[in-house]
Every structure is written in C-alpha cells, then in structure tokens.
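Table 4 source record.
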Amino acid sequence: MYVEIAARELDSKLLLATLAAAKGHQVVVSDLSGIMKGIQKGALAPGIFHDKSLTPNANKIATHQFVIDNGFVVTSIDEENNLINYGYDKFAQDRYSEETIGHSSAIFGWGPEDVETLKEVYLNHSSRIHMTGSPRIDLLQPLFSDYWGIPQVPSERPYLLVASNCQANNIKSFHETLRLMKGAGYFKRDPQLFKKKFGEMAESYHRIISFIEAIKHLADNNNGYDIVLRPHPAENIEAWKIFLEGIPNVHVIQEGSIIPWITNSFALMHSGCTTAIEASVLGKPVVTYIPFELEHYTCEVPNSLGFRVESLKELSNKVNAIYDTRQSITQKNNNPSLPEPIIKKIYLDNDELAAEKIVKIWEGIDNKDFTKPSNWIKFQWLLRVMKFRKITGKILKKLFQVRFGSVKENYKFPPLDEQNICARVKRLQDILEIDKNLECKLLSERTILIKRL
C-alpha cells in the first residue's frame, strides 16, 4: 500500500494492513520508491498495488502500467476526494479518466456523492466502483478512541485547536506547485485553473495574516485556555513559529495524526480546512472564521460547518462561550447528527468498517500469480542499498551544492520508528479483538511489513 502523506494516511493504511494480515495476507505499507524498487528487482511477488489516487497524468499512468505488466492489479481510494466543495462532477473529470479507471480492478468510494458520480461518468466501468467508505473515517468512530491516546501538550490547560491550510506557506514553492500541476495535466483539463491558482494564493496570504491577528486576539481575550496551531503537513511549521513568536500560551505543533488533537481539544477553529469535517464526525464544536469574502478558495463544505463568525469580536465571544460550556457540549455531542453535506460525502456503516469492506473486495480479486512468495530478505537489502545511496547523495549535495543542488527532504513522509509503528498495530489488534499472531517489522525507515506468523 502506497502512502504519500503519513500524517493523513498512515494510520488508515495500518488498519487495512492489520485486517488483511490477520486473514493471512502479507502486506507492505511504504512510500512509492520502495514499492517500485521491490517490483522492479523481482523481490515483491505479484499482488495488489493500492494507490492513493487515479489522477490521469503521465507518471501515474506509467506507474500503473508497470505494476500491471509485472502481474499486479491496481486498486485505489482517492485521499483528496473533493471533501471541500459541493458536487463531484469536476473532480471526477480532473482526478480520473477512462484509462486510469480501466487500469484499476477496484475503486473505493467515500460516500454516495463520489460513487454515484463516478458510476455515471464512467458507465463502462461502474462494476469496479464500490461504496465502501474510507478507513480514515473508520478511525473517527468511538471504537477507536483508545487507539489515539492523549497528545503531548506543553500545558495542562484546555486548548483550542486551530487548523491551518494555507498554501501560501507551503514548503513547496508556488512555481514548483504550478509546474507539477502542469505536468499532471490539470491546466489542460481545466484552462481556467492556472489563473484561479493565483487568486487562491492571494487569498491564502490574506488568510495567514487574518489567522495571526485572530490568534493574537484570542490569546489576549480568553477565559483561561491555550491555543494549539496545527499546520497542514505540507506547510512550513518554522514559518508559523516565526509568525506567532512571543504570543503567550500559543503552541505550534505538527506531530502525528490530527485526530487525537481534535479529540482532546475543547473546540476547533478553522477557515477552509477539511479538519472541520473530521471534527464534526467526532462531535467536536467547530468555529469557522471567515473575516473576508472568499472568491477563489471557497471551500464550501468545511466553511458551512459549525458556527460561522466574521469578526474578531464575534470570534472571541463564540470561542469563550464554547469554552465556558465545554463539559455540557462534550456530553451533548457524543452522538452527533451529521449535516447533509457530510452525509453526501461520507458513508458510515454501523455494522461493518470500511476497511473490512475493502479487504473483502481485495480477497475477491482472482489472480493465480498472487500465490507466489515474495523474497523479503532481498527486498530488505534493496531498501538498504537505496538508503545508502540517498545518504551518499545527501552528503555530496551538502558538499557540492552548486553542482548537485540542495538536499530535498521528504516532509510528507518522515522516517518511521519501529517501536511506535508496532505499538500502533498492537493497539489495532486489541481493539479489533484479533487473536492471530502478527509480525510487524520495519524493513526501512519508510517501509513496513505486516504478516501473520
């Protein structure tokens, strides 16, 4: 299973891997380079390659063709899934194509909206499209409350969680983002998008200064709580630390999944962030701060949730009111009633997890080559050679930056800790009451093997 952004996707992939391994399957959870190297060198036997999208760009198409040519089948769930805007028609055209869906043996949908649209747009492939729900939403259910634990907050005081999603502060430069989008064919499929991205960027800078002013105002006008700002995984956390330097009782933290941070906060403040959807599913109060009119980055669904406020005075009054009544609100929202926009986006089945549905569909994919064994020793040595070459490359780049360029870190998928990962898998086993003896092993800093002993 391919993981692009660890903070967003890793825990849901571990859930899938644990369920699949308990049924006797051997599962690799990894970044893309590790999987491709294992397939290329024949260390990984044919199996299911589970992708995070079916975007119709040349690299994606070539990747899928490569794995298919080596006996694998492709399945996918789109990790973006247009949770931010109403409707799915445009997203269905931008993120899928007849070719990429044709490469796939199964496409898993988050809910009624994406599944119905995809079945209508790609009628010839409708049998491959399944409404399973997302394993990421599974992990928001009360069943998994003990999985997350309590995050390490610098203060014992209650905190307001502020979720940021400002592309103006992305680690990747704006022109590099445009270059990648151009290479992926987004501007060809939507000629107006290039201009729209500049408008979004202008609004993003406006949102950053609005958030800075809002956090300063809340820090000076609150009833005894702290503020935790959580940047998006693609944002530059050091920039936020500079922006908010010297403001008392404000903490900038980007560690791990955002779910435990939501769960242990008394409320969420956001503007244009899908974290508002997760908070709504968790029954946490949401304050949507829109201090200026949005023209380009409208983020319709998240910005329709919770309490919408448009001024600093409204903001502090509302957050303080929620804080003062936080105990009764927490009890009231244990079983939240979800608004209609979320119900259209997200499918929840009280009788079966989305991850369980996906594993069942995987097991129904018939391929005689799946019985061949993988060479795990060879695979691990290949990963070690890759790591050695990366370390050598980093040293050369640091010594000779003019010739080799600067070092680029994989900020989307930081190195893993084996003890931490295996502890997560063990918690999942306990929660799901899996009595099988599973092995969890880190083959490299970004590659995990989970299998039954």
